[in-house]
Amino acid sequence: MTTSVETRTGTGSLRRLTLDNGLRVVLDPRHMAPVVGVAVHYGVGFRGEPEGRTGFAHLFEHLMFQGSEHVGRSEHFWHVQSAGGMANASTHQDFTDYHQVVPSAALERVLFLEADRMRSPRLTAENLRTQVEVVKEEVRLNVANRPYGGFPWTVLPGLLYRTFPNAHNGYGAFHDLEQATVEECETFFADHYAPANAVLSVSGSFDPGQATAFVERHFAGIPYREPAAPAPLAEPHPADELHGVHRDGHAPLPAVALGYRLPDPAGRTDDYLAHMILASVLASTPDTRLPRRLQGEHSLVTGVQAACGLFGPLQARDPDTFQVVATLHGHTATEDLLAAVDEELASLAAHGPSEDELARATARASARTARAYDSLLTSTRHLGSFELLHGRAELVRELPGRLAAVGPEAVVRAARRLGPGSRAVLSLVPGTPGRQ
User: Mapped to the 3 state alphabet, what secondary structure does 236-280 carry?
Assistant: First the structure.
């Protein structure tokens, strides 16, 4: 039996389905060109992989494209591209998502493909060996042999956090990847790739009744499995300022990443959104506080940015990270950067942003978010991630307005939270990197 709930929002309606096997479905019909986005989010990312198998969640993402019961190796891409669409996937801290955009006429084809690999991916020794090498090459390309590769997301958590799920590098160590077995893959699939641990989101130009029939036809027959309990993520905030060094032999200039703990994005969403506006006040355009001071007035850095989340705002469970990242001129001391950041945060904590400054910051954040959701792919993916992580797919509709409404008192509170006594300061030093 399928349960169905329709939720009205200010700009349309979302329809939710829950199948007997636990699969949650979010349908978002929109009046637009005849295209449709489809995403499947599984509630496991690299914070859910086992100790001794770092990089396993990302490796498994690759394995899910190596065929299933009725689909050959890499044929998923062929079926989508031959219909005129695109497909890809990504691994985040707390989820792995598989997504595609296709002409509306190909909706059932994509749902069949996703259901087939949800039911029975081909987990073979040959596929495993091949994808281990593919992942290793990806790490070499994106991290080991690239200036500032993976900085700071692969290394900052190891300084700011203490527990294995929160602290380890999600790309993983080559030794761990090379030791992975087919049996471990089968266990990982059984534990985490259950329908009851997944959200299917469909957005675009489609008929909701027909889409519901397609979903039931292809997904309802997948048996229920009890997913494994999520990894425990809670840990205390740092009691001191933490310092660390990361060496990068390819980087021409030093850099610094500051990491702070954010409020719980699900339990304290309004406080989290205030930090998004704080990031906009600090470093969203050349005329905001940190670029104006560090680049325009004193020429201490070549670039500086502030952001919520290692992979974007609201894309992880608690704990999540507020980060300030700057590339320094060779003559700049880290202490000078820290002093400037602390002075700006202290000023905002004491006096708040000016009326004009806040208006520009909220307008930028709201407009940037609204523009992002003009992309069918982005809105489809965020429907799924918001539903999976926070139970709030509606955030795709609500965020622009909620960001525009953030007031000065909320920004003051956010600035007061980011003191030097509970942050991580990671210095990237040009030098000989570790070899993979």
Answer: CCCCCCEEEEEEECCCCCCEEEEEEECCCCCCCHHHHHHHHHHHH
Q: pLDDT below 70 — which residues of the chain?
A: 1-12, 432-436
Q: Which amino acid is at 357?
A: E
**Across the chain, how many H-helices and E-strands are there?**
16, 12
Give the tokens for residue 307.
Answer: 């952001």
Which are the contacts of 335, defined by CB distance < 8 A and separation ≥ 6? none
- Per residue in 163-198, pLDDT (tens digit) is 999 999 999 999 999 999 999 999 999 999 999 999
Q: What is the mean pLDDT of the chain?
A: 95
Count of CA atoms in the C-beta half-sphere (13 A) of 235: 17
Q: Structure tokens of 344?
A: 């700006």
Q: Going edge to edge, which strands form the sheet with 96-103?
A: 3-9, 12-18, 24-29, 198-204, 35-42, 96-103, 86-91
* Residue count of the chain: 436
Are the C-beta atoms of residues 114 and 99 closer than 8 Å to each other? no
Q: Which two tokens stand for residue 77?
A: 């891409």
C-alpha distances (whole Å) from 212 to each of 108, 118, 207 are 10, 18, 9
Whether residue 198 contacts residue 24, with contact meaning beta carbons closer than 8 Å, is answered with yes
Q: What are phi and psi of 86, to 5 degrees?
A: -135, 155
What would you measure as the largest C-alpha separation in the chain, in angstroms? 67
**How far does CA 122 lie from the centroid of its chain?**
26
Please report the pLDDT score of residue 403 as a whole number: 98
